[in-house]
Design brief:
By secondary structure, the chain is an alpha+beta fold. It is built from three helices and two strands. The longest helix is centred in the middle third of the chain and has 14 residues, at 40-53.
């Protein structure tokens, strides 16, 4: 059962000019694995996705970590 984000997080894709609307913890985890740039914020977001799936944090907390990683990695759209 997906753990939904509200609202979705818009991120750049590997295809130039396209945007993906990431709307769940599971989709965020998949998206994180496609990024070349990885650092502390990326690692925090990966852990947040794991924690959300395991029920230790809320999907909203995972969403915030994912947004922070997207911004830090230059993947967030509209920011």
């Amino acid at each position: 059962m997906p753990l939904w984000f509200s609202p979705p997080v818009p991120v750049r894709t590997t295809q130039i000019g396209l945007t993906r609307q990431v709307s769940s913890v599971e989709a965020a985890a998949e998206e994180l694995l496609t990024w070349d740039k990885r650092g502390a914020a990326w690692r925090k977001a990966v852990q947040a996705c794991i924690d959300a799936v395991e029920g230790r944090i809320t999907p909203d907390q995972a969403r915030r970590a994912f947004m922070a990683a997207a911004k830090a990695c230059g993947m967030l759209r509209g920011a």
